[in-house]
Amino acid sequence: MSDKPLFVIKRNLQKSVQTGSTFQDQLDDSYLKDICQKITGRSDYDCQYVENDYRDDFLNKSYNKGRLATLRYRDYVHFITFSDQAITGRNSSIQSAITTFNIFYACPYDKKKLYYYFICKSGNPATDYHMFMYRLMKTVGFTFLNFPISSPASSFTTIEDMMRARDENRKNNKGNNSTFISKNENGEYEAYCKTFGANKYESSLICYAMSMIIGQTKKIKLYEILEGNLKELPKSSLRVLRKMNTVDIVRTDLTFEKRIFEESHGNQLRSPRYQFNLLYKLGEKHCALCGCKIPDIIQGAHIWPVSSIRADNSIGIDDKVRFATDGDNGLWLCENHHKLFDRNIIVILSDGTVKYNHDLSCIHVPYLCAFTKNTQIPSIYLNDNFRQYVERRNKGLNMANYVSF
Ligand SMILES: [Zn+2]
């Protein structure tokens, strides 16, 4: 038997029949030679392009899912996925990498390796968004055989790293806000994932990377934020997550939220959608009054309190749930500031000014001033909705009792 490296590649992409353009058309011999050289140290190889009905231990009977080439050499099988030739949107070139990861991860053969190869000729493959995704890909085990810019992506070593990078990414690209990583008061890591359309690929990759970092020691809570169409993560992704066995998946839709609202009492409400909406509006947890960023002690504080929403008989249940989970009806506050706000020792005015209750014994004032750095709520909070919630809250208070910091 020949000892030559052998590529086995499905010829057709999903749309090859319609477009007349195959995956083979995109793969120059020079790419394959380069890949072979980098992986095996040899530049001679054989290559078989196979049709949709071909199957073996590593390839299913289908078209080429994942822009995948396999390279078999000695007893190793190498899975290589390729970028698009033209990088158009934020998700191009990333989706197929995730599909390939799913195939790779499900393959029971253990002498296997995973690679990424750039063949892009147009577009920008190194936007901040792409760089974040490459870091996730490195974290889950991809080796990049080439890279479009001189500084290669590094893997994430902690979930905090990921949270920070994600937040930076979000600030620079407002359109990009489908998945959020956070940590709750019990120290559990959480992922809030929109699952509609291309978001599902990004959400899957983020959850894989979190799983790889955390190992088997703890569980991650994955909240699938389902919209009207109730699309959940793709089956292939769910299969991978189940095999990783580090993720508890909670599907949340409006029925689920309604149940949480009805089953909780008083001011209590543990609503994933509220958390998601706050993350969506405000980004990473950081106290609006002191800037504290320790996620374990930052909470979503309702402006119009849940207990008041509950008690208001003039509104129906659907609206109650909507008000109780509205991102505009909330602040990120540290536990201390949350208590001070709930007890109305600190108030916020509709223009965002922060004041404190004059009745507070003056011996406590220096302490309060020292750790309340923001005497004006950050501008990201302020909009008409926010102002209305503030007015509803403050209606019952005697504002003459409050003074400026
Ligand atoms: Zn604080």
Task: Describe this entry's structure for a reader.
By secondary structure, the protein is an alpha/beta fold. Among the domains are: 6-152, no CATH class; 156-252, no CATH class. The protein contains 15 helices and 15 strands. The strands form 4 sheets. A 6-stranded mixed β-sheet has the order 2-1-3-4-5-6, sandwiched between helices. A 4-stranded mixed β-sheet has the order 7-8-9-10, sandwiched between helices. Helix 8 (235-244) links the parallel strand 9 (220-225) and strand 10 (247-252). The longest helix has 16 residues, at 199-214. The radius of gyration is 26 Å and the shape is elongated. It starts with 5 loop residues before the first strand and ends with a strand. Bound molecules: zinc ion. Zinc ion (ZN) binds next to strand 12 and helix 13. Zinc ion binds at residues 287, 289-290, 292, 333-334, 336-337.
Summarize the structure.
With about 400 residues, the protein is of the alpha/beta class. About 35% of the residues lie in helices and about 20% in strands. The strands form four sheets. A six-stranded mixed β-sheet has the order 2-1-3-4-5-6, sandwiched between helices.
